[in-house]
Amino acid sequence: MTYSNPPIPKLPGYTVSLPQSLGDKRLAKNQTLGYINGYQREDALREVRDLPPRDATATASPTQQQSPEATGTFGHSKSGMFADSPSKLPQWVENDRKVLRFFGYFKEGVVESNIENHRVRKIILFYYLEDGSMHVAEPKQDNSGIPQGTFIKRHVFLKDDGVSSFTPQDFAVGECVSIYGRTFFLVDADPFPRQWYEDNMSTTLQPALPYPDDPVDQYRSTFGLTKGAKGSGGTTNQRLDDFKGYIEARLGKPSHLLEGDKLRQFLENNKRVLRFWCVWDDRQSMYGDRRPYVLHYFLEDDTVEILELNENNSGRDPFPVFLRRTPLPKANLRGTATTTTQKPRKKDCYSPGDFRLGQYVNVYNRDFLLQDADRFTKAWLMDNLGFAPEELQPVEIREPESVLPKPALPPFNGYGTLQDSLQNCLSLVPKPPRRDMHRLMNKDKIILRFTVRMVDTDTHKHSPIDKQRRFVLSYFMMDDTIQVFEPPVRNSGIAGGKFLERQPVYKPNSEEVYTYTGLYVGATMEIYNRTFELCEADEYTYTYMENNKHVFIMADHEVLLKSLRAQATGKEDAIRTAFIEFDKDGSGKLSGEDFEAALRAAGLKFTRHQAISLKRRLDRDRSNSVPVHELMSLLGISDEQPAAS
Known about the structure:
Elements: E1 33-36, E2 39-42, H1 54-59, H2 62-65, H3 91-94, E3 99-109, E4 118-128, E5 134-138, E6 149-155, E7 176-179, E8 182-189, H4 191-200, H5 215-222, H6 236-250, H7 262-269, E9 273-281, E10 290-298, E11 303-308, E12 321-326, E13 360-362, E14 367-373, H8 375-384, H9 418-426, H10 437-442, E15 447-454, H11 464-468, E16 471-476, E17 481-486, E18 497-503, E19 524-527, E20 530-537, H12 539-547, H13 557-568, H14 572-582, E21 589-591, H15 592-601, H16 608-618, E22 625-627, H17 628-635
Antiparallel strand pairs: 1-2, 3-4, 3-8, 4-5, 5-6, 7-8, 9-10, 9-14, 10-11, 11-12, 13-14, 15-16, 15-20, 16-17, 17-18, 19-20, 21-22
Helix pairs in contact: 13-16, 14-15
């Protein structure tokens, strides 16, 4: 006789892992954790089947008792769709971020209301394929008066039986879903659920269905509580409103309640604001100013607020709110019994049609000029009030800038430098004059040196000893300063050394300093009532001026050649004769002094620096001589004299 254990009851929330036969001592637990493609997974346990009846167990054969279908390991039960097989990824990996979204509604009963007996509330149902959880959300609607958002938080929903959970087979467009006692009607789905049902369940969802009518919307449309078509001035709703107001007035309704439906105005114009830029000119009063402001008109309740625009460096504290949001009356309230606590009537306040660009708005005895509006405001005024585009052009409010007269500077007294003395006239606390950093960095150590001598003028005569003195004039390119130094000469009776400290030198009877443009061999400079002539320059000065001939015109030999060609027209014989006379040795070359003397004898005009530059250009072998035939060819004159007729 075989002994059989009685069936073990299965309690909710518990699992029993004891073998069915007490004689079976194999109590080992198989491993269920593993990895597939780098992801953790848990092997599905075999389902626990109900034990056969006691009589059937006693008469069953040993083979039937040991079959896998009769005996198994107790574990959780899963449907075939969501069970993990050893050959695929876990469900939470394969269906990660895959959500089935359905659109629907449910009807909510309304009691103690003569307008509606039920209300249609729209919902969105989300089903997460990774774990079978769900959540229901209700889209937020402005001014609905109902707390909306998440309707049911995300978790695994149980069906009405309280045991099984929802699966994708329970959802379809046009079907009803009962969740916690509420019946939800599904009317539409996203494209992803439709494709998922076709690929995985071979099911095609129905097209989108319309939402049912809400009794509140029907009531509002019947009694004219909704916005009609544009331009429909004599619609049925408007006539019903007029008739309704007349009946209510006959029945004794207060007049302040007959102004209009504030709820309709709020619902139609919520978050719609007209914005105008304006200016308040208060300069006629003491300490007044001309200030910019922005005016906001709220269409939802016909209120006005004015904000002050803060300008940079205006010297004012940032108080942005000039007028708090309130109805703006048109009447002058000063000197009347009206107080700020008394609410003005709607007909006595500003409306959108009263705001026109170029006109003034009286804000408690302050005139604000409207000068511009934003794009939404202009479009709303044209669409709703029929404003023409010409009436909405911005008004020019810029005033011509007044040029402040500059005080005349006193004449330079000669002490110090002109820049230092000028700082005392520009500011109370003198500041050092600004220096040209570009010249300081790029013209540093560039010094032009010339040999100079004193010459007589009409007002100043020099002694023969002073005429024999020679000086070295140094011009510093970095700051336009000049220094004069006298080389000492033995037995001359004059102590050499520094003749003029380095400083800017001003031209006679002028506030302009000498610059590099007036420096060339042959020029004269008056320095503190002494006239100096520039006799010659060093090699560095000649080279620097020739390399920058676009600045130093006297060092450009091409300019001299063009001038000599123009002057040589008709003087070919005189030029040829002068060159032959000064070429005393018949070598065909002229020295530097003879070259200049020959050009002067021919009646040609030039400066010494130009002649030196041309001589340096033609003296290629550095022999201090100029080839006559080459100079003649440059001037366009032939060497041979024409035969006498």
